[in-house]
């Protein structure tokens, strides 16, 4: 158990992220969430945006009769006071609770967005009102750029934050955590495994838990065996030994040239209209949502567009990336990997339609 900053809440080192639970049917999802509670997981992070997959709805069912065992964090990607007040009310209704422990302004990426939500008529006004009315207990923020989150921390308007942090995207350790510790803001972590891309979850999680600023890691889980493995790490996060540190160094060198940090600072200017920014996290989304859900969102057309990268001589996408990742090479790999999957899926769907 760890203290969640100035909230004073005690949370398990391993918490539960609310996205992958989409993959399970509702009855199974509820079983997994309750099983996690049985194993000592008490921090559950969800969002209004996640509820298109039923995340808040599944959590509501799981906590019936057990509300006092859990710390609930939800969030909404809205920017104005009125929109946020509506989102809080919707979350309260969906979750079936009178009070939500932590409510966050979700996906605040740029300094301009922080200025908007924290300014007059912004979403933070609603969260302050909701706290005064007892609808929420604490105010939070989530985002991907540690320098922007640091400004939010220094404002003393927030109690908790959610940020990506792993052995590749490690900037928060130096850019953000000194400020959270100085202001006693609780730190919760997303993308601990790079969005399910990294192997050896136990080593990845233990690396994160070595950082004293971290209160809990929101690990996405939708299988009971995942709960067992992750909880085991949280109960006994042993320091990494030299061999494990060497392995992490090798993995970092490998992923350093492949892993999109989700910083949202690039402004792709592809002459062939290849949506490289969204495709950079295709591996992540494929593992998260599966091909059926992605096809419904038109991913086949995006993948097909990468055919243009085979003969492209432009380098603008590399220049647009703050990390100068070899994006044309990565787009060519995506085409080789996913076009056969898309074609096989379409063939199965066509055969099923004919048979029906």
Question: How would you describe this structure in keywords?
Answer:
single chain, alpha/beta, 356 residues
Brief summary of the model shown:
By secondary structure, the chain is of the alpha/beta class. It is built from 16 helices and ten strands. The chain is globular.
Secondary-structure map with pairings?
Blueprint: E1 2-3, E2 10-11, E3 14-17, H1 26-38, E4 43-45, H2 55-62, E5 71-76, H3 81-95, E6 100-105, H4 111-118, H5 123-132, E7 136-142, H6 146-154, E8 160-164, H7 172-175, H8 177-183, E9 186-190, H9 201-209, E10 214-220, H10 224-235, H11 242-255, H12 276-279, H13 282-296, H14 299-305, H15 316-320, H16 327-355
Parallel strand pairs: 3-4, 3-10, 4-5, 5-6, 6-7, 7-8, 8-9, 9-10
Antiparallel strand pairs: 1-2
Helix pairs in contact: 1-2, 1-10, 3-5, 9-10, 13-16
Give an overview in words.
There is one protein chain. The chain is of the alpha/beta class and 356 residues long. The chain folds into two domains: 246 residues, Alpha-Beta Barrel (TIM Barrel); 80 residues, no CATH class. 47% of the residues lie in helices and 13% in strands. It contains 16 helices and ten strands. The strands form two sheets. Strands 3-4-5-6-7-8-9-10 form an eight-stranded parallel β-barrel, surrounded by six helices. Helix 1 runs parallel beside helix 10, helix 3 packs across helix 5 and helix 9 packs parallel to helix 10. The longest helix is centred in the C-terminal third of the chain and has 29 residues. The chain is globular and about 60 Å long. The model has no long low-confidence stretch (mean pLDDT 95).
């Amino acid at each position: 158990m760890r203290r969640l900053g100035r909230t004073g809440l005690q949370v398990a080192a391993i918490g539960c992220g609310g996205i992958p639970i989409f993959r399970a049917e509702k009855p199974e999802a509820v079983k997994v969430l309750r099983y996690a509670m049985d194993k000592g997981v008490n921090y559950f992070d969800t969002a209004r945006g996640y509820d298109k997959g039923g995340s808040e709805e599944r959590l509501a069912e799981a906590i019936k009769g057990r509300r006092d065992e859990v710390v609930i964090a939800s969030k909404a990607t809205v920017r104005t006071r009125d929109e946020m007040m509506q989102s809080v009310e919707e979350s309260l209704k969906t979750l079936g609770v009178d009070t939500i422990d932590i409510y966050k302004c979700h996906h605040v990426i740029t300094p301009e967005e922080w200025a908007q939500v924290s300014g007059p008529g912004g979403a933070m006004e609603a969260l302050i009102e909701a706290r005064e009315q007892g609808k929420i207990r604490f105010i939070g923020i989530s985002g991907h750029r540690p320098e922007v989150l640091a400004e939010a921390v220094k404002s003393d308007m927030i109690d908790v934050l959610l940020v990506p942090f792993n052995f590749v995207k490690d900037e928060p350790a130096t850019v953000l955590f000194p400020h959270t510790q100085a202001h006693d803001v609780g730190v919760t972590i997303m993308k601990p495994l790079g969005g399910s891309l990294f192997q050896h979850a136990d080593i990845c999680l233990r690396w994160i838990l070595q950082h004293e600023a971290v209160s809990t890691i929101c690990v996405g889980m939708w299988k009971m065996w995942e709960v067992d493995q992750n909880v085991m790490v949280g109960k006994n996060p042993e320091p990494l030994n030299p061999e494990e540190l060497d392995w992490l160094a090798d993995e970092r060198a490998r992923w350093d040239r492949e892993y999109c940090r989700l910083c949202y600072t690039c402004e792709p200017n592809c002459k062939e209209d290849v949506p490289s920014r969204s495709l950079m996290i295709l591996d992540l989304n494929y593992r998260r949502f599966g091909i059926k859900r992605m096809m419904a969102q038109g991913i086949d057309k995006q993948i097909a567009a990468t055919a243009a990268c085979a003969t492209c001589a432009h380098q603008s996408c590399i220049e647009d990336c703050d990390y100068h990742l070899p994006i044309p090479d990565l787009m060519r790999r995506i085409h080789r990997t996913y076009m056969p999957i898309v074609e096989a899926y379409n063939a199965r769907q066509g055969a099923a339609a004919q048979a029906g």
